Amino acid sequence: MSRFKYILFDFDGTLTDSSEGIFKSLTYAFESYDHGTPPDDLLKKFIGPPLYHSFTVFCGFDDKHAWEMTDKYRERYRKIGYLESKLYDGVAETLKKLKEQGYILATASSKPLHFVDQICENLGIKQYFDFLGGTEFDNTSESKATVIENAMKNIGATLHETLMVGDTKFDIDGAHQVGIPCLAVTYGFGTMEDFKEYNAEYIVDTAEEILDIVK
């Protein structure tokens, strides 16, 4: 019998490869304000934390400009960027099997809920989730731990029966702040160094391997 009953999923880099839409929308924002084309290493830092946080911490923008950049990013993302997401190999099949086996599933993402809902619907995986957890457009301070706690509350999850699945240090750290273990997937945007430094309890290379861990 599995020790887990509730499985929480990060979104970008865990369920979907949304890098094309995110990177193109970021580039659109940077170039719209004459900041030039952002380098790849900077773009990759935006996967995981909230946009506002990234613009202030990674780029040093003040509050006003961080919001301007966020709005400009979303200008493109809400038109076409969200359509540039694709499921990672094995994700749909894994979610289907988990649901059939009786697990209660939810997303716990720093991505705005509006986009989480749209992309899940567009990619045909919305029916597998008991709750879609994301953030609000105007939220600047909601931590990953808070997102996880909110998802757990909405599905009635208990600490000793819940597993977080993610691809970055933010997912691992957020899960540990709440008091639950984290399974890290290597096919996303995180690094093995981060997984080891932040002490991910489980590490897998494919979505299908999640099934073996939860058993």
Describe this structure in words.
With about 220 residues, this protein is α/β, with parallel strands linked by helices. Helices cover about 45% and strands about 15% of the residues. The protein is built from ten helices and eight strands. It has helices at about 20-30, 40-45, 50-55, 65-75, 90-100, 115-125, 145-155, 170-180, 190-195, 210-215; strands at about 5-10, 15, 85, 105-110, 130-135, 160-165, 180-185, 200-205. It has a six-stranded parallel β-sheet, sandwiched between helices. A two-stranded antiparallel sheet has the order 2-3. Strand 6, helix 8 and strand 7 (about 180-185) form a beta-alpha-beta unit. Helix 1 (about 20-30) packs across helix 4. The longest helix is centred in the N-terminal third of the chain and has 15 residues, at about 65-75. The radius of gyration is 17 Å and the shape is globular. The chain starts with 5 loop residues before the first strand and ends with a helix. The mean pLDDT is about 95.
